[in-house]
Amino acid sequence: MATALQQPSMSEAEWEARQQLAACYRVFDLLGWSEMIYNHITLKIPGEDGAFLINPFGLHFSEVKASNLVKIDIEGNKLDASPYPVNRAGFVQHALFHRHLPDAHCIAHTHTTAGMAVSSVQGGLKPINFYACAFAGQIAYHDFEGVTVREEEGERLLANLGDKRVMLLRNHGILVMGRTVAEAFMKHWSLQRACEIQLATASMGEPLIVSEDVVAVHQRDLHMAQVPGGPGAADFAAMVRLVDRTDRSWRE
């Protein structure tokens, strides 16, 4: 059923996507992953080829609502009557992946302190803790080329990503992709935790490197674990409940 803020011409699928993405922005903010009015989480709209949602440029993550997300196509054209502009740095990178990767339904890019720090050291993320071991062999890296506003960088981004769906942009930050909002959230949460722990460990001395054999067993056993509702679904739902305890305006 349409809500007061859902436009009559808007499909139920689009409104549901708006609700999920707005909730995700608020969860990211709750966890301290905001960066002024910058960074982005985008989500494809089911049933609309080439259409996806992005945050309105100029608003903080804590101000994002289902109704003020901007609907654009992969060429950067606005598909709704939003009064807000779109940050080109977010559009160019995200549109590239949405265009070429059918399974990249939700994409998140952040500049967290831990993510930027680990992306700025030789070797990147190392298998030295529980969370990092889950990402061993699963992370792509892309060298820093400046702010991502040039389309010609896209070919190199795709080549460096390959078949992976998690990337550390060197000297820049975190980029994760998921088949759902919840999966993208969980990838980001886990990678952020891995980076935070690596930072803490670095201040204490030489870290213990987990062997490849143990990493393989760890990843096998994690993969075997049954997760109700799909990857990250229960975790994301729990975080949305936390957001709702103090502010439910994202639903508008």
Automatic annotation (TrEMBL):
GO MF annotation: an example: actin filament binding
InterPro entries: Aldolase-II_Adducin_sf (IPR051017), Aldolase_II/adducin_N (IPR001303), Aldolase_II/adducin_N_sf (IPR036409)
Residue ranges of domain Class II aldolase/adducin N-terminal in the record: 19-199
Top-level taxon of the source organism: Bacteria
GO cellular component: cytoskeleton
Gene3D superfamilies for this protein: Class II aldolase/adducin N-terminal domain (3.40.225.10)
Pfam family, one: Aldolase_II
Family of this protein: Belongs to the aldolase class II family.
PANTHER family registered for this protein in UniProt: ADDUCIN (PTHR10672), PROTEIN HU-LI TAI SHAO (PTHR10672:SF3)
Protein name: Ribulose-5-phosphate 4-epimerase/fuculose-1-phosphate aldolase
